[in-house]
């Protein structure tokens, strides 16, 4: 993929080309989202639909210390505040 | 600006605001400003048994910077309109 | 500004970034949502004991420390037996 064929020159171009596509978002606090991207701005505030959130909870004490519990939940339409966003990954292209 | 406008179109709708301290509050969106500070009416805290702290609070002002998520009413969000507006705004930013 | 104007002279409840809960009468505020409370008290929550109220008097809270400001329904608030409420304190905000 070169610049001419994708039109990607800046990081935000990659996000713009992911509009209306399912993206993977990594957030602070061991959270990840998968959802369809409908809007974003320069702060990386996002609006996603059909969202699945995954929270990784590492057990801190007792027998299970160090084991990772995974909690999942679904949300229909979600605004995500940009200050929590670590990365946005576009859908895999084939 | 775009996100601010989206929230303005959702005035008087029910939304759920999830804060960075894990508190979730459902309420009627009364107003929003450019910092994305939010005013909610007729609020209900999720998991009231765990969070009785706000039992006597009926409306509130939430600082934008402490918001993690806002769950929006999907039927009041025009996703096509959002995508077009986002493309337009990103082009305008490129020209600056 | 999603204004705090409606809260002036009302009893309000503040939740702060460190999880503290403060009630008081909103005497004033400014653009940065700095808030002055009169007749204010901190409510401390615990799982083992009822809610304690610690008098703070006239108090200025910096806007950037505030998570939330709620208007208290005084009829409901006065009907609550604080001593009977058991709850863990609210978590602090981590970015």
TrEMBL record, chain A:
Belongs to the snRNP Sm proteins family. It is found in: Nucleus. It comes from Jaapia argillacea MUCL 33604. SMART domains: Sm (SM00651). The lineage of its organism: Eukaryota, Fungi, Dikarya, Basidiomycota, Agaricomycotina. SUPFAM superfamilies: Sm-like ribonucleoproteins. It comes from the Eukaryota. GO terms for biological process: mRNA splicing, via spliceosome. Binds specifically to the 3'-terminal U-tract of U6 snRNA. Its main location: nucleus. InterPro entries: Lsm3 (IPR034105), LSM_dom_sf (IPR010920), Sm (IPR047575), Sm-like_LSM3 (IPR040002), Sm_dom_euk/arc (IPR001163). This is LSM complex subunit LSM3. The keyword Nucleus applies. GO terms for molecular function: RNA binding. It holds the Pfam family LSM. Residues 10-94 form the Sm domain. Keywords: mRNA processing, mRNA splicing, Nucleus, Ribonucleoprotein, RNA-binding, Spliceosome. LSm subunits form a heteromer with a doughnut shape. GO terms for cellular component: spliceosomal complex; U4/U6 x U5 tri-snRNP complex; U6 snRNP.
From TrEMBL, chain B:
Keywords: mRNA processing, mRNA splicing, Nucleus, Ribonucleoprotein, RNA-binding, Spliceosome. GO terms for cellular component: catalytic step 2 spliceosome; Lsm1-7-Pat1 complex; P-body; precatalytic spliceosome; U4/U6 x U5 tri-snRNP complex; U6 snRNP. Coiled coil: none annotated. Transmembrane segments: none annotated. Residues 2-76 form the Sm domain. One of its GO terms (molecular function) is RNA binding. It comes from the Eukaryota. Belongs to the snRNP Sm proteins family. This is LSM complex subunit LSm2.
From TrEMBL, chain C:
The lineage of its organism: Eukaryota, Fungi, Dikarya, Basidiomycota, Agaricomycotina. GO terms for biological process: mRNA splicing, via spliceosome. GO terms for cellular component: precatalytic spliceosome; U4/U6 x U5 tri-snRNP complex; U6 snRNP. PANTHER family: LSM1 (PTHR15588), U6 SNRNA-ASSOCIATED SM-LIKE PROTEIN LSM8 (PTHR15588:SF9). GO terms for molecular function: mRNA binding. It comes from the Eukaryota. Belongs to the snRNP Sm proteins family. This is LSM2-LSM8 complex subunit LSM8. It comes from Jaapia argillacea MUCL 33604. LSm subunits form a heteromer with a doughnut shape.
């Amino acid at each position: 993929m070169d610049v001419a064929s994708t039109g990607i020159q800046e990081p935000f171009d990659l996000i713009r080309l992911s509009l209306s596509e399912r993206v993977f978002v990594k957030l602070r606090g061991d959270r990840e989202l998968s959802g369809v991207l409908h809007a974003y701005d320069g702060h990386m505030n996002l609006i996603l639909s059909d969202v699945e959130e995954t929270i990784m909870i590492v057990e801190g004490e007792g027998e299970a210390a160090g084991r990772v519990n995974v909690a999942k939940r679904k949300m229909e339409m979600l605004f995500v505040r940009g200050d929590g966003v670590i990365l946005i990954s576009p859908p895999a292209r084939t | 600006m775009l996100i601010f406008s989206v929230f303005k179109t959702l005035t008087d709708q029910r939304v759920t605001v999830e804060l960075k301290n894990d508190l979730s509050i459902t309420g009627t969106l009364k107003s929003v400003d450019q910092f994305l500070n939010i005013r909610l009416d007729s609020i209900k805290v999720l998991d009231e048994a765990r969070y009785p702290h706000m039992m006597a609070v009926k409306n509130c002002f939430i600082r934008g910077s402490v918001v993690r998520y806002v769950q929006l009413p999907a039927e009041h969000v025009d996703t096509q309109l959002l995508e077009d507006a986002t493309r337009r705004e990103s082009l305008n930013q490129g020209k600056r | 500004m999603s204004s705090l104007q409606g809260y002036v002279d009302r009893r309000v409840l503040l939740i702060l970034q460190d999880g503290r809960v403060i009630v008081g009468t909103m005497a004033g505020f400014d653009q940065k949502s700095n808030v002055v409370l009169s007749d204010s008290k901190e409510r401390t929550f615990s799982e083992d004991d009822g809610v304690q109220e610690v008098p703070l008097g006239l108090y200025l809270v910096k806007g950037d420390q505030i998570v939330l400001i709620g208007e208290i329904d005084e009829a409901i608030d006065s009907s609550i037996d604080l001593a009977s409420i058991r709850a863990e304190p609210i978590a602090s905000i981590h970015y």
